[in-house]
Design a protein that fits this description.
Elements lengths: L2 E3 L8 H5 L5 E3 L4 E3 L9 H5 L5 E3 L1
Antiparallel strand pairs: 1-4, 2-3
Length: 56
């Protein structure tokens, strides 16, 4: 399962910078995960300062 980014996202970009497959992109008001690209490694979840990245 892919990770998701909740509304707690502050658009800091930490998750996108950490993603090894570039599955995270800036969306409207928050970052978004491309579920088809995400390899569910959890790197994004570990660096999120607000805990907005969750395993789906």
């Amino acid at each position: 399962m892919a990770h998701i980014i909740t509304d707690e996202c502050i658009s800091c970009g930490a998750c996108a910078a950490e993603c090894p497959v570039e599955a995270i992109h800036e969306g409207t008001g928050k970052y978004e995960v491309d579920a088809n690209t995400c390899i569910d490694c959890g790197a994004c979840e570990a660096v999120c300062p607000t805990g907005a990245v969750k395993a789906e």
